[in-house]
Write a structure and sequence with these properties.
Layout: H1 2-37, H2 52-64, E1 68-78, E2 85-97, E3 103-106, H3 108-111, E4 116-120, E5 126-135, E6 140-144, E7 168-173, E8 181-195, E9 201-208, E10 220-223, E11 228-235, E12 246-250, H4 251-264, E13 268-271, E14 274-275, H5 278-288, E15 293-294, E16 297-298, H6 303-306, E17 313-314, E18 320-321, E19 325-329, E20 332-333, H7 337-344, E21 352-359, E22 362-369, E23 371-374
Antiparallel strand pairs: 1-2, 1-4, 2-3, 3-6, 4-5, 5-6, 7-8, 7-10, 8-9, 9-12, 10-11, 11-12, 13-23, 14-16, 15-19, 17-18, 19-20, 19-21, 21-22
Keywords: Hydrolase, Protease, Serine protease
GO biological process, one term: proteolysis
Protein name: Trypsin-like peptidase domain-containing protein
């Protein structure tokens, strides 16, 4: 019995030692295997300095982006059970600080139909905005916010008169709600005309290939020096997303319209006080074998009335006695109401314009001083 117990004890001891050795070996193998399979990251190659173009882009964004704002338009919703009224987000867009008085420029279509708007700065401070005024025909609107401390600086203003196709541009905005997004590109064309949301033509636009998407509307278009040269307004796209064709309201238009909105609450559209009906003009000028726009009406006390411009007359039998036919404004040919508006679009109230007319088959030239028409 004693030998049997000792054998069992000895066997148990040896089995314990063998198990311990096996465990130790497995741990050692496992550790070595893990060490052998540990992935080694590649070394990072040092890069040289940024290119001059990259440095310019980085510096421009750093300097200008604090002046770009995120606009959330609001709508009012009434709870049918409690009759409580609350404001809810309606849409988003972009804008930028125009001056040190807190005026914010954006697109008219960004705020059209909204009951209110909130403006968020780059430092995430938010402010309620009041509408100062708008110019739907130029797709521009001005809001105002009160920033009590450390307001962002307004963007430096450039000119759009000397822009060239191929010139480098930068666009900053909030596409799809991603705030302060930078895209770059070139000017693809100038002096484009597209139809606005109301069907009216919007003229003298800058065409760009920088990516413009929903939410970019109202953001600034900059030249390589970081100056404002336009306000991003629209895209041409079958899908609704950027397709490489974007449009911006030129800075010269902005600089003409925005001060008027700030001063008067609306844009006084320059006018000479004539009326043209395209379908009538086309028939009469075709019958007369002449080019131009038949004037069918003259507004009372307008520059045209004071200059003695003669409109067409309609007789009792329905026939039309032609009056003056407007052929050119400051040398630019016109033949429709849209072309007349286009020729006057870059003028200001008080500017003088030269009209080339045809009266009873004879050329006539008149010089008028433009008045303002509020819309």
């Amino acid at each position: 019995m004693s030998l049997r117990r000792n054998w069992k004890s000895t066997r148990t001891t040896w089995l314990g030692l063998a198990a311990a050795a096996l465990v130790a070996a497995l741990i050692a193998l496992g550790g070595n295997g893990a060490s052998a399979k540990q992935p080694a990251p590649r070394s990072v190659s040092p890069r040289g300095p940024f290119t001059a173009e990259e440095n310019a882009t980085i510096e421009t964004f750093r300097r200008v982006s604090p002046s770009v704002v995120y606009i959330t338009t609001l709508d009012r919703v009434v709870n049918p059970f409690t009759m409580n009224v609350r404001e809810v987000p309606r849409g988003t867009g972009s804008g930028f600080l125009w001056d040190e008085q807190g005026h914010v420029v954006t697109n008219f279509h960004v705020i059209a139909g909204a009951r209110g708007a909130q403006v968020r700065l780059a430092d995430q401070r938010g402010f309620a905005a009041e509408l100062v005024g708008a110019s739907p025909e130029n797709d521009l609107a001005v809001l105002r916010i009160k920033v009590p401390d450390k307001p962002p600086a307004p963007i430096a203003l450039g000119s759009s008169r000397d822009l060239l196709v191929g010139q480098r541009v930068l666009a900053i905005g909030n596409p799809f709600g991603f705030d302060h997004t930078l895209t770059t590109g070139v000017i693809s064309a100038i002096d484009r005309t597209i139809s606005g949301d109301d069907g009216r033509p919007v003229s003298h636009l800058i065409q760009i290939d920088a990516a413009i998407n929903p939410g970019n509307s109202g953001g600034p278009l900059l030249d390589s020096a970081g100056r404002l040269i336009g306000v991003n307004t629209a895209i041409y796209s079958p899908s609704g997303a950027s397709a490489g064709i974007g449009f911006a309201v030129p800075a010269d238009t902005v600089n003409r319209v925005v001060p008027e909105i700030i001063a008067f609450g609306h844009y006084r559209r320059p006018t000479i006080g004539i009326n043209v009906i395209d379908r009538v003009s086309e028939v009469v000028t075709r019958q007369m074998s002449v080019q131009g726009a038949l004037i069918v009406g003259v507004d009372a006390k307008s520059p045209a009335a004071e200059a003695g411009i003669r409109p067409a007359r309609q007789l009792r039998d329905g026939s039309i006695v032609p009056g003056d036919i407007l052929q050119r404004i400051d040398g630019e040919p016109v033949d429709s109401a849209a072309s007349i508006e286009r020729a006057l679009d870059d003028k200001k109230v008080g500017d003088s314009v030269t009209l080339d007319l045809l009266r009873q088959g004879k050329p006539l030239q008149l010089r008028l001083r433009m008045a303002g028409l509020a819309r």
